[in-house]
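Protocol step 4 of 5: obtain the predicted structure for the target chain.
Materials: sequence only (see below). No template structures provided, no constraints applied. The aim of this step is simply to have a reference model before the mutagenesis design in step 5. Sequence pasted as it appears in the construct record:
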Amino acid sequence: MRKVLSAIGIVLLLLLPGCDFKEIDLRIFVLAIGIDPGEEEGTFKISLKLAIPQGDVTKIDEKMQILTEESPSISEALRRMKSRVSKELDYSHCKSIVLGEGIARKDIQHVMDWAVRRRDIQLILNFGVGRPDALRVLQVRPKSEHIPSNSLIVAMSGQGTESPFIASVYSFQLMRNIYEQGIDPILPIIETEGKNEFVINKIALLNSQKIKMVLTPNETRLYNLLSRSNLRTNLPAHFEGVMYQYYTERSSSNYKILNPESGKATIRYHIKIKGILEESSSPDLVTHGILEEIAKAGGKELEKDVLALLTKIQVSGLDPFGWGLHYGARHLNNDTEMEVWKGLYAGLDFQVKADVDIKYSGLIK
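Step 4 output (structure tokens):
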């Protein structure tokens, strides 16, 4: 019996295909993909930003190339581009997909479906919206960038700059939020400023298909303050005609949904901040008593701004914070809970409490 099994195993091994591995010098690495509407209706314009290995680790600048192809199918465009290069296109290092604003304002589901099905594209790459289009975002190369697309990758992933205006969105998160009930997806907006600079300081709010609203930079900062802990940023406080700015060393935010059974739901946010006074428009000495008054004024100002943001999002009918998901997780009736929530959502009330504690003035006496 053992001999029979061994013979069967040998036969099966002979039927296995050979290795399809290609050496690194026969590969071109795709680091970013841009997807725009094509010139013809119903087509896509696909752009690939390629890094070409030099084989010499002492070289400072890597060579790069951008390929663009238009087709009714994303997959077909990629296949056509393979005939325009002499080496194999390798997507294993692709870390960013940039959707042109024309795509993001029309329908992103086709692109998401392709990105998730594609076997050699990771689910942890970052998505963003390119303004005015994805191709021009890929063409930007900051002077400090030595590796193609590296600036875009480290900025969007949070590995580099810790900006309070950037929200990282991975492909698995975007796909999940598109189809999940009770939460709506978001995407960061990448805007070009000339050929050597881009800025990421806005967030687009989407429904399950397209952009419905874009937050301003300050609203984007407040969104990030509410959605993640320990956001490093500065916030304003005005007291007795003087403008102060305090730096947030630590921050946290949580909320509760109150009294939904009565037919009138209230969402109560509690924000806690510990900070340092960073800027003052007055040369006067800031005492401990004045610090407490500045903290109270900063808290009141923050409450007002957050309340305005929450009300604006509610009016749009979107739910990027996942309030509906939170409600559904605590009301175990899968047949009706989302319908009930939709009825409650339009009449929501918001309460915001911000506790700001400014520890010291940043000066040594």
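Step 4 remarks: Residues 242 and 284 are 10 Å apart (CA to CA). The chain is about 30% helix and 30% strand.
Proceed to step 5.
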